[in-house]
Amino acid sequence: MNSKRYLIVNADDFGQSQGVNRGIIEAFEKGIVRSASMMVRWPFAVEAAAYARSHRELSVGLHVDLCEWECREGTWSALYEVVDVDDPAAVEGEVFRQVDQFRDLMGADPTHLDSHQHVHKSGPAFSIIADVARRLNIPLRGSNDSIKYCGKFYGQSGDGCPYPEGISAEALLDTIRSLPPGVTELGCHPGFPDDLISMYKAERAREVEVLCDPQIRAAISGEGIELCSFRDVSAVLEAGRSAQVA
Q1: What is residue 107's predicted lDDT score, i.e. its pLDDT?
Q2: Pair 197, 18: CB distance under 8 Å
Q3: pTM of the complete model
């Protein structure tokens, strides 16, 4: 792959609410989003899937949704728990149920896998979701050496405090200019959050604005970076392997 740089801008939480759907669609149609990860449990996943089926250039993966935690006044507590994340049987059953629901909604397998609040990085969810990714032969966020994950574009600190500079145009430009060779996934959470119950709300509209900022696309082009999606990435990686062999 030499020094060529590829960027996948992936929007999480597709389907969680109508406002989130609108924000992701705007960031796709007017901005740099090329992939999205769908939360199939939520009522507006049907709307998200209908849009994606008619816009195949948007690559859609599964955002495994087992729980959501929020931090209030320095204390983390569960906003909801779908299953006990320490119960392997319960986690496995829910993950497979969500994979099946994704297939019912999209008429296809997901192009990639990740999870809400990165729950797949630890506990029983790690091995279970990694096994699903292997079976489907698709990337799992953070577990594929060929695709680096960048989570810098986020508007809160680790303890839930506002961090507006994290989702500024300047910060995103810096991230783009410093991308390493190869494929990088940039995570984002665009949306219009009026109908969303979450600790990450006001930041979403600002993300839409920045992701659609013309100077961002101009910087990507000026840096010689190629925007791609998870649907494209297998061909990109294969081309890189072929170049190394040659």
Answers
A1: 98
A2: no
A3: 0.93
Instruction: Give 202-217 as a DSSP string.
Output: HHHHHHHHHHT-HHHH
Domain total of the chain: 1
pLDDT of residue 72: 74
The residues of the chain scoring below 50 in pLDDT are 1, 245-246
Q: For position 227, what pLDDT does the model report?
A: 97
- What residues make up the domain containing 210? 5-245
Which CATH number characterizes residue 17's domain?
Answer: 3.20.20.370
pLDDT at 214: 98
